[in-house]
Amino acid sequence: MEGQVEERLCGKWRVTCCLNSYNLRDIFTWHLVKTVVMGQVLSLLICGTAVSCEYLASAGVETPMLQSFLNYALLLIVYTTILITRKGERNIIQILKTKWWKYLVMGLADVEANYAVVKAYQFTTLTSIQLLDCFVIPVLMLLSWFILKTRYRLLHIVAVIVCLLGVGAMVGADILAGRDQGSTRDVLLGDGLVLLSAVLYAVSNTCQEYTVKKLSRVEFLGMMGLFGTVISGVQLAVLETHAVAAIKWDLRISMLFAVYALCMYALYSFMPVVVKMTSATAVNLSLLTADLFSLFCGFFLFHYTFSALYIISFVVITVGFIMFNAVPTYTLLPVDDPADPAESSSDRLLAADRDTQTDETLTAVAAL
């Protein structure tokens, strides 16, 4: 009797999480392995930017807007040039005529998100930044729900909670190791800047997911390069003229700037590929391990104190990321209209697949 009750409870849990139609072979696929590996490559690129920033800061160089400008300028040179050479409706002129204000908002959100989180280090602690920066994930999920019509299952919510627990373990290890660095000059202002940065990142990432899935990766990067260069260039001229003039340029400083710019360029170029494979939410979950990679480098380069909690944190975040990607999200698609020739066959297949999964779930519930 107890066995039957336990089996019924497990069955209900599988149906609720939408796992009833999946087995281990369906979940642990080559696609999932590629997603995990590519997500960690993004984290390593962020680690490269963090390490180069640490060395620049130790040399007395604090020019976040100049560093951002170099990244956007590289995107401009490569991807905006591609858009300029295109012909027809996909040419940059046609894009600007119809969607210039949308890409302006996207570029503004991205530039100011980068600036706000760097500025926050002057007012609040590292612990606050690490914790509050995770606010980007629930905001991104809400924006995806309302704007992209993405629907999440219970397993996805559980996976996000698991990832945040891993971040909690990392922050706890930082406190125990005495790495609660930063300022306490104006904690409220600093925390507000982190939350603002998280919201702006969520807006930028939502725009990115929509553009790379509905339009193209080159269009997204070309427009980001164009508007990001203009906006960051104006802020650079207004805010950092004296700081840039005070830099004592040598080969080491130049190489650090080059490493930062190339890592950011690779991150921006590669991230849309992963977003298209998964989602912006999944990518941000994978990026939670970036701080851990930076810490692992810090053990050797900056002599940080090691804690076993860092390993536990990495494992927990990775498990949460795998859980999130084990079962796909789905999108509310419009009802099929035979008179609409613009609808793609892939949309119809997605809708059919979703209906099939729904029927299977209802059948399983009825059987229980």
Describe this structure as you would to a colleague.
This protein is mostly helical and 368 residues long. The chain contains 16 helices and 2 strands. Strands 1-2 form a two-stranded antiparallel sheet. It starts with a helix and ends with a helix. The model is unreliable at 9-16 and 335-368 (pLDDT under 50).
Features:
two-stranded antiparallel sheet, 368 residues, 2 strands
- CA-atom Rg in angstroms: 23 Å
Estimate the mean pLDDT confidence. 80
- What percent of the residues sit in helical stretches (DSSP H or I)? over 70%
Overall shape:
globular
**Amino-to-carboxy terminus distance:** 15 Å
Query: What can be said about the biggest beta sheet?
Result: 2 strands, antiparallel
- Total helix count? 16
The portion of residues forming beta strands comes to under 5%
Q: In which order are the strands of the major sheet placed?
A: 1-2
Can you count the beta strands? 2
- Unreliable runs: 9-16, 335-368
Order of helices and strands: HHHHHHHEHHHHHHHHEH
Alpha-beta content class? mainly alpha
Topology:
Blueprint: H1 2-16, H2 24-27, H3 30-58, H4 64-85, H5 92-120, H6 126-132, H7 136-146, E1 150-151, H8 154-176, H9 187-214, H10 217-239, H11 241-245, H12 251-277, H13 280-286, H14 290-301, H15 308-326, E2 330-331, H16 345-367
Antiparallel strand pairs: 1-2
Helix pairs in contact: 3-12, 3-14, 4-5, 4-10, 4-12, 5-9, 5-10, 7-9, 7-13, 8-15, 9-10, 9-12, 12-13
In short:
By secondary structure, this protein is mainly alpha-helical. The protein has 16 helices and 2 strands.
